[in-house]
Amino acid sequence: MTIMNLKFVLNEYVLIWNLLFQASMNPEIHAFKQNLWKNYRQNYHAMEKEKENLLKDVKNYIPSDDTVYDMVKKIEVYPKIYEETEAFRLSLMQVWDQNKKQILKELKELLRMDIRLYHVLVVHPKLEVVDIEGGKGKRVNSITWGKAKENQDPLEILCEIISSVLKNELKDYQSEYHEIVTAIVELLIENELYTRLSLKSQYLRGDSSLAFLKRQIYPYFLMYLGASKEECLNYMMRDKIVFDLDAYTYEKALAKVDLYTFIDFCIRNQKRIVKIAELEIL
Predict the structure, then answer these.
(1) How many CA atoms lie within 13 A of 128 on its CB side?
(2) What is the pLDDT of residues 105-161, one digit of tens each?
(3) Could you say which DSSP state residue 192 is in?
(4) For the CA atoms of the chain, what is the radius of gyration?
(5) Average pLDDT by stretches of 10, the chain with 282 residues
């Protein structure tokens, strides 16, 4: 089983498309876009519609008209943007390569499912782009990633990428229960995986709107992890989340199911899970 594989790629067509159609990352790009709108409006419109074709086969994509692409490459700030994007790509690739063995080991234990290859199409982090294409049923999927806070832990960025990939894999699965699926993914990747990689609890991270739901799922999530009743106490102390274990039926079988089955369990039992009010944050 291939749990997950990520390939970090810098493609100039993808970079330039995002420079032109995402929020302007600097005054020079903004001025250039205004000039395009005034003087090359037809080319600009045509290029915007090319996104689907571009992402369908990034490696072999050739634009029918490369006028605008060539113009962007001649902007004074473009070489610096390209250089900084390449440095960002190399930093992501390095942290993936350095931690891949442990990440795959942890993901095998946490997910118990296969995820196909994803191309991470790296663009400049100041663009603040997270764009996923593809999904189940496709041989190769891609995620456009250009997001990083200043001085952000590279492992945290990597966990955010993995979380986005997993959300994409599950986007058509139980889609009517989107919040439950998203909460479980956050618990798995942005909380538990990042905790294991960083060696300190990361359970206060994530979407604040899902915090209550995640706390309600947390006891069953520990059962899914295979924690014994005694080990649950250690997890509670580690994550500063407390619940009365005696108020729960210990679902021992959850430790042997895959992620899909755990999601199904939480959906089937959501009324029972969300009703319990003993959970609290220390």
Answers:
(1) 6
(2) 999 999 999 888 899 999 999 999 999 875 454 545 899 999 999 999 999 999 999
(3) I
(4) 22
(5) 86 97 95 94 90 90 91 96 98 97 96 92 97 61 94 96 94 92 97 98 94 96 96 96 92 96 96 67 45
- Could you tell me the CA-to-CA distances from 31 to 23, 124, 128, 203, 274 in Å, in that order? 12, 18, 19, 43, 51
CA-nearest of 217, 212, 211 to 259 is 217
What kind and span of H or E run contains 184? helix 178-185
User: Residue type at 42?
Assistant: Q
Q: Are 92 and 8 in contact (CB under 8 A)?
A: yes
What pTM was computed for the model? 0.92
Residues whose CB is less than 8 angstroms from the CB of residue 241 and which lie 6 or more positions away in sequence, other chains included: 203, 215, 218, 235, 279, 280, 281, 282
Task: For residue 169, give the nearest of 124, 138, 129, 202 by alpha carbon.
Answer: 138
Using alpha carbons, select from 132, 126, 198 the residue that is nearest to residue 163: 132
pLDDT for residue 56: 87
Question: Which pLDDT score is estimated for 275?
Answer: 67
Residues near 23 by beta carbon (within 8 Å), at least 6 away in sequence: 127, 128
What is the reported pLDDT for 116? 84
**One-letter-per-residue 3-state SS of 120-179:** EEECCHHHCEEEEECCCCCCCEEEEEECCCCCCCHHHHHHHHHHHHHHHHCCCCCHHHHH
Predicted local confidence at residue 207, as pLDDT: 94
Question: How far, in Å, CA of 159 to CA of 31, rounded?
Answer: 35
**Residue for token digits 């995820």?**
115
The three-point CA angle 120-123-129 to 5° equals 85
- Which backbone phi and psi does 62 adopt, to 5 degrees? -130, 120
Q: How far is the C-alpha of 179 from the C-alpha of 83, rounded, in Å? A: 39
Find, among 28, 5, 25, 3, the residue nearest to 15 by Cα: 25
